[in-house]
Design a protein that fits this description.
It is built from 8 helices and no strands. By secondary structure, it is mostly helical.
């Protein structure tokens, strides 16, 4: 796909930085926009309805996404008291982040495929950035769908479970979060996450190929 100079680890790292900023910003901004659409102005009042990455970055989560292609951003504040249907609406707000990442990846792939065979260095750099954006965006979406706190998947899951489980999740959230970080850093989650990321990538790529011919 990319060869020689563009396979350099340093070059890929440099190109990954804007990709990471785009993925995280879109993810968190879409959480905020969905909450605002459902009647909660908290994110808007906090200045989080923006694609400015400075407003969304979590240092550890950003580094994880940069090095492992799985990570997270600073959570958008949400006040469920504004929602007419709190359990349903918090699930929709949580789902908005991963869905936005899959849609972003699809757009990036549509832009990437026509450029991937170019011989121009500048265009090749853009193509590599689009490819990394797609891969990282899918990784961010897949990772956040894991149904453990504090990830989006846990909030989606809780909306379908009896309310008594909400207290249990909250009670052990910090321990689960620590365990998740340990599993991520020692590589236990690498195989299943990469498998799911690759499957989603292949599915989105097949859509692009079918449309572009």
């Amino acid at each position: 796909m990319f060869s020689g100079y563009w396979n350099s680890t340093l070059i890929q790292m440099l190109v990954s930085i804007p990709a990471v900023l785009i993925c995280l910003s879109v993810h968190e901004a879409c959480h905020g926009f969905m909450a605002y659409a459902l009647g909660d102005p908290t994110a808007k009042n906090a200045g989080r309805l923006t694609l400015d990455p400075i407003q969304h970055l979590d240092i550890i989560g950003t580094l994880c996404l940069l090095f492992f292609h799985f990570g997270w951003a600073k959570p958008v504040p949400v006040n469920t008291r504004y929602f007419k249907h709190p359990r349903r609406d918090i699930a929709l707000v949580s789902l908005a982040g991963p869905v936005s990442n899959f849609l972003l990846a699809l757009v990036a792939l549509f832009l990437y495929y026509p450029l991937r065979t170019t011989s121009s260095s500048i265009v090749m750099a853009i193509a590599l950035m689009l490819y990394m954006t797609a891969v990282m965006s899918i990784g961010l979406g897949v990772f956040n769908l894991i149904p453990v706190p504090p990830l989006d998947g846990s909030k989606i899951l809780l909306s379908f479970l009896p309310r008594r489980y909400e207290y249990k999740f909250a009670q052990y959230e910090q321990y689960i979060q620590f365990a998740l970080l340990v599993l991520l850093f020692v590589g236990v989650l690498d195989t299943p996450l990469h498998f799911l990321t690759n499957r989603v990538y292949q599915g989105l790529a097949s859509i692009v190929v079918a449309v572009l011919g």
